[in-house]
Design goal:
The chain is an alpha/beta fold and about 425 residues long. About 30% of the residues lie in helices and about 20% in strands. The protein folds into 3 domains: about 50 residues, no CATH class; about 220 residues, Aspartate Aminotransferase, domain 2 (3-Layer(aba) Sandwich); about 130 residues, Alpha-Beta Complex (Aspartate Aminotransferase, domain 1), CATH 3.90.1150. The strands form 4 sheets. Strands 5-13-12-9-8-6-7-18 form an 8-stranded mixed sheet, with helices on both faces. A 4-stranded antiparallel sheet has the order 1-2-3-4, with no helix packed on it. Strands 14-16-19-17 form a 4-stranded antiparallel sheet. Helix 2 runs parallel beside helix 7, helix 3 crosses helix 4 and helix 3 packs across helix 6. The protein is globular. It starts with a strand and ends in an 8-residue tail after the last helix.
Length: about 425
Amino acid sequence: MLFGFHLKTGCYQLKWLKPDSWTTFLCAPSGIVIEKHPGDKPHTDCLAIQGGPAAVTAEIPAWPPAWPEVARSVGAALADGSWGQYHGRPVQEFTEAFAAYLDVPLVWPCSSGTIAVELALRGCGVQPADEVILAGYDFPGNFRAVEAIGARPVLVDVQPAGYVIDLRALPQAINERTRAIIVSHLHGQLADVAAIVKLAESRDLSVVEDACQVPGAIVGGRPAGTTGHAGTFSFGGSKLMTAGRGGAVVTRDESIMQRMRIAAERGNDAWPLSALQAAALVPQLSTLPGENRRRLAAATRLREALSQSALFTTLNDAWDEAWQPAFYKFALQITGEFERQPVLDALCGEGVPVDSGFRGFMRRSLRRCTVCGTLEHATRAAEQTILLHHPCLLGDDPLLDQLIHAFARVEQGRDRLGRV
């Protein structure tokens, strides 16, 4: 009898060996999978979760990487003492560099992307009892940012087979209490912010463009985060630009900026970006474009490889010079007849670093929010999405080959997985 723990899958494996057969008992998040095969060792075409060898053995790049530019920048802040100052040199340098990178006049650095959304809403004049429209499938912090102000979230659907707010669902959600719309770019899909801003301005509303997942993306010919009345960014530990924590709001409107200053002032800035975080971010403005190009090339190859899949579907949006996504997560959806968790378990067993998407807001109490429509597509996104983390997209060709092989192997073994 053999006992082991799979570091990549988080599963315990027990093998009972006999002269003429072997049995694998694998405790996965979805339950215990039991398979029996003749012979004295596993078949190589068997899924890893059922005892076969894992498809992905190549090293997945670490994130964040050991950027020498970041080490030098942080070291300089430590050496000159600016790291310990309230308004240290690196914060001003980052603010100016980020403004130039995005071609916007005003940047408010802050402590997180979640606080950035709240400050942006306050900057847009959202008050208690106002209503803020957002997608039924979105980052949970956006819902809570609305509630933190005392405003009421109003949920609308996302695009079919997608993740961004559906422009067609907005008119029925707007009323005299509506003050703002949160528009998030998610999982490599870009929202048509210009069209939403046009609708919003016709009704005297503000648009907060959440670009936390997509720094460096191009949306309708403009940098992501710069088309809405305010744009938000996150520099959390796993993000495409990272300082462990941190965020920023950008705008072209001085009145929005002034209201954010007032909201953040608590004797001093209540939610600051630290000098050390700023020092780590400045050099990444130079490395981000090249990394985004590599991720886009890898995502393009993955999308092509999965285009004929009977198990997985991917986004089919057109990408060109005016619409260039950035990939914090590469998204897939499971076709309706299969359960997601067994597929997740199988992919993890193959060494693919995947997880489920957001849970969405469909089950939130109606005491907390208003729901417009059925949220059919948001529900599907919440129940069927699988997300591949972006460091995989920075790997070399052998890693990408193995990832594609892993998806193909799981699809070939789909009849051994759970169906709805």
